[in-house]
Amino acid sequence: MSDIRISTDQAPAPAHTFSQGVVRGGMIQVSGQGPVDPVTNEYLFPGDVKAQTVRTLQNVEAILAAAGAGFEDVLMLRVYLTTRADFAAMNEAYGEFIGSRVGEGGILPCRTTVMTGLPREEMLVEIDALAVAR
């Protein structure tokens, strides 16, 4: 299988020198996504980590879909938060979103959550994904 650059207008265009995602060796890597509207490229929901988490996961989902995959194909999600205080709210929104995509009895992806600084002050959350290409 040759390398494929994933590109979709259903997720924000990369602001820097990277791809939205790459398929290589039977794997899909989705670049870190934030709470950005794919049409306007505006950062959404300032101060609301739950809404930012949902928008961010929608962006990840759009890139997965462009690669012919979905959350049922995801092995690992990495969540980056700016503050530990937002963990419970992020986790609630994350659980509802992922649970609705994987379904009852489905295997939930692995996850790591890291507290760190993010590239934009208005970003409370960033998420990337590693999935299996089908």
Automatic annotation (TrEMBL):
Cellular component GO terms, alphabetical: cytosol
Protein origin, superkingdom: Bacteria
GO molecular function ontology, one term from the record: deaminase activity
Organism annotation: Nocardioides turkmenicus
Annotated InterPro entries: RutC-like_sf (IPR035959), YjgF/YER057c/UK114 (IPR006175)
Biological classification of the source: Bacteria, Bacillati, Actinomycetota, Actinomycetes, Propionibacteriales
One Pfam family hit: Ribonuc_L-PSP
Transmembrane segments: none
Name under which the protein is recorded: RidA family protein
